Amino acid sequence: NDYREAIRLAGDCKLPLMLAETYMKMGMVFQDSANGQRGALLEAVNAYQSALQNGITEEEHPELFAQLQNNLGLAYLSMPATESSNQLRTGIAVQSFRHALKVYTIEQHPDMWASVSMNLANALVYAPSSHPDDNLVQAVETYERVLQVRQRAKDPVAYALVLLNQANALAHLGIFKPALEKLSEAYKLFHWYDQVEQANTARELVDQINERLGDRGEQVEVATS
């Protein structure tokens, strides 16, 4: 209600940037408190779109624009999936992350570039497409570039998370041996740093890949213990 009153006042006073920033802040409040609820996420999306319509542009306010586009993409991806809306919302999310990456560069904004690039790659893995392998290859390549920033020596858990996601994309492509090698390293790092949930996820993916290899008459053992 406070944000809606601020929006009314900013509109009355013809302060477009203040109006746009207030819409953005209201969207962030809805998004932060959504807990996966579609209604709150739709409110966030509507607020972000209003912020764009009221003057937050790449040319005039690049960092606000990039933050808004990243938030918009995450809001779309957080919505409960329905068969009819999945393709549209994932497609919009992918485009939003691409817009943000026009501003966030690895040279000037390495941390934000890595975060948004991860979001983009994660979206590409599951984006409905007539050429899904192209999306998966792009995701694998994007994860590889993220490893330039999320280095093992600097942040081993973040590094392991990139490996885990990259391995998942490789597994979707049927490229199992490199996927298992990455999962082995990721599992060890998660285990060493007491990231139990992520370690279990890596272990489960190893089991799934070995099951698929077994169905093909192959077996590749990778130590994750």
Task: Please describe what this structure looks like.
By secondary structure, the protein is mainly alpha-helical. Helices cover 74% and strands 0% of the residues. It is built from ten helices and no strands. Helix 4 (62-78) packs antiparallel against helix 5, helix 8 runs antiparallel to helix 9 and helix 8 (156-172) runs parallel beside helix 10 (196-215).
Secondary structure layout:
Layout: H1 2-12, H2 16-32, H3 38-53, H4 62-78, H5 83-101, H6 110-126, H7 132-146, H8 156-172, H9 176-192, H10 196-215
SSE pattern, N- to C-terminal: HHHHHHHHHH
Computed Rg: 20 Å
State the end-to-end CA separation.
Answer: 52 Å
Strand content: under 5%
Can I get a quick summary?
The chain is mainly alpha-helical and 225 residues long. Helices cover 74% and strands 0% of the residues.
Task: Name the features.
single chain, 225 residues, mainly alpha, 10 helices, elongated
